Task: inverse folding
């Protein structure tokens, strides 16, 4: 009797034999699922989407950067905000109707609003709004400009199309940029786990993460930052030697990253630590490692430095982030002195649950016990990483090759968390709130998922690896299916709404009749591009459900196969 231990040692036929075919399939799954999320998400429901769009619009229409984050959005955007159902959390910006209010309006009034949205002249995109209020300003002008420069090109090609069509076209382009994530995920996972099958499974898990979909299926620079950060991590970790060629590549990616999001500054100390350890392990001189790191900084500064110099001249803060600008006269010593005032437990908790599942700008949330399941899973992974480190310290210290790569990956994840906590401090000092968005963490999702799987593998027998991967895929698939079926779709179509206390009414699909489902699908087509008809939503819903159920069936199959092949 022999026991199957290595997931790659099975001599039975496997779907994973054709790696390229599976990778392309997973990429298509990612894109198709994202297209469904794009289709379901109403206009301006994505986090700060209208302000990101306004940034693209002003570059495209006026061939310049916004002067500052107080510059008003266009009249086109202002009228669209007054004509559309708007997110719950900003309370419709004080100018329109929330989703709750919109679907309670008489049908004739809703039809008038829909017609007004369709009839907005594209030329109004050049006119500054006459409306007032912080949410009617291009406050995302604080963001570096690379993503907006890139999106301005297709925007100009689509300038004669309706506002709705332009928004959804830019959403699709953003998803295509983010879909680059699949390839570096496979490459890094294969390097760490030394298994193509495990690497493909990790990519599959990534493709079914619902909050990742929510984050990238909107207009916003997160999609580009996710792609760039993933490439940066892969180049840093997978390069076995510190060379000038690698340093040049890292400098270019880092420079482009700094022109996308200011949080790429967290990658600088991570790269420095990787270079330092690599120089020690490969008996290279510290001088060469220092020179290579200097090259990274010089190239990055040459590409992105102008933006941070501009911010310092205009705003008094290099990053241009609103909180930093507000605190430009506050010394570091004063900021450090107030660190104990921050509610760090609440901050970390907020980051976690808004990282796992957070329903767009209406801030919808799943059941609390669902977050607990993922919280315990992540804690178990952390325990596994600690156990792995202790094993290495208690051994001869050499460790295996994968442990060294995991250490390099952890540098990027650690320093990004440091940046998040710094942002918590800035937010607290300017608003008194101890929190920061958890969806920022998707920039280093590649590092997180590899560490998550590695940690769980470290506390389980080798023969259980397939089951661990199946459990992770099942958890994210079920969360994904629940979130979009029981929360997003019914809420965006008015079938559930907030209670007076702020909680959300539960959705029971078994209480709906056939005509109710027809009405739900019909409402999904409101304020959408012309091709998103009721038939389109029937097809996309069926395809989405098929992919989710297929993933769950695959998970069950893995458990059954594993049980049946443990003994031969």
Result:
């Amino acid at each position: 009797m022999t026991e199957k231990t290595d997931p790659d040692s099975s001599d039975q036929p496997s779907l994973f034999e054709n790696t390229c075919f599976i990778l392309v399939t997973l990429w298509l799954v990612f894109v198709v699922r994202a297209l469904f999320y794009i289709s379901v998400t109403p206009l301006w429901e994505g986090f700060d989407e209208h302000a990101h769009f306004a940034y693209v619009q002003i570059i495209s229409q006026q061939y310049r950067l916004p002067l500052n984050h107080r510059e008003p959005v266009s009249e086109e955007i202002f009228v669209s905000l007054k004509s559309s159902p708007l997110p719950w959390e900003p309370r419709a910006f004080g100018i329109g109707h929330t989703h709750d209010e919109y679907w309670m309006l008489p049908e004739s009034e809703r039809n008038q609003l829909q017609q007004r949205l369709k009839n907005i002249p594209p030329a109004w995109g050049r006119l500054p709004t006459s409306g007032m209020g912080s949410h009617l300003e291009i406050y995302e002008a604080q963001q570096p400009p690379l993503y907006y420069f890139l999106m301005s090109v297709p925007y100009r090609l689509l300038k004669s199309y309706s506002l709705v069509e332009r928004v959804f076209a830019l959403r699709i382009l953003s998803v295509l940029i983010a879909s680059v994530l699949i390839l570096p995920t496979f490459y890094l996972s294969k390097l760490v786990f030394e298994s193509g099958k495990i690497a493909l499974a990790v990519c599959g898990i990534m493709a079914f993460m619902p909050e990742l979909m929510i984050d990238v299926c909107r207009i916003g620079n997160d999609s580009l930052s996710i792609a760039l950060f993933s490439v940066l991590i892969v180049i840093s970790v997978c390069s076995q030697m510190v060379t000038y060629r690698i340093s040049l590549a890292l400098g270019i990616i880092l420079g482009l990253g700094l022109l996308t999001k200011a949080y790429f500054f967290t990658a600088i100390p991570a790269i420095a630590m990787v270079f330092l350890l690599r120089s020690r392990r490969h008996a290279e001189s510290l001088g060469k490692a220092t020179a290579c790191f200097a090259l990274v900084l010089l190239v990055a500064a040459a590409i992105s430095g102008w933006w941070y110099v501009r911010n310092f001249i205009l705003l008094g803060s290099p990053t241009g982030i609103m909180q930093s600008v507000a605190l430009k006269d506050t010394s570091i010593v004063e900021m450090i002195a107030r660190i104990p005032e921050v509610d760090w437990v609440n901050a970390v908790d907020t980051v976690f649950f808004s990282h796992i599942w957070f329903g767009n700008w209406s801030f919808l949330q799943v059941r609390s016990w669902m977050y607990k399941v993922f919280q315990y899973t992540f804690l178990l992974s952390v325990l596994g990483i600690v156990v792995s480190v202790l094993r290495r310290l208690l051994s001869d210290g050499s460790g295996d090759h994968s442990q060294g790569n995991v250490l390099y990956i952890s540098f990027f994840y650690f320093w990004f968390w440091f940046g998040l906590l710094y942002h918590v401090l800035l937010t607290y000092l300017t608003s008194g709130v101890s929190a920061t968005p958890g969806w920022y963490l998707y920039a280093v999702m590649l590092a997180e998922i590899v560490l998550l799987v590695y940690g769980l593998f470290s506390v389980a027998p080798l023969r259980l690896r397939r089951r661990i991967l199946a459990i992770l895929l099942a958890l994210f698939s079920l969360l994904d299916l629940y979130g979009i079926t029981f929360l997003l779709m019914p809420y965006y179509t008015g079938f559930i709404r907030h209670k007076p206390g702020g909680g959300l009414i539960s959705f029971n699909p078994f209480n709906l009749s056939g005509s109710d489902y027809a009405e739900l699908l019909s409402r999904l087509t409101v304020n959408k591009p012309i091709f998103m008809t009721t038939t389109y939503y029937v097809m996309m819903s069926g395809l989405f459900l098929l992919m989710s159920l297929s993933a769950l069936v695959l998970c069950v199959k893995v458990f059954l196969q594993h049980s049946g092949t443990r003994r031969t």
About this structure: The longest strand covers residues 85-86.
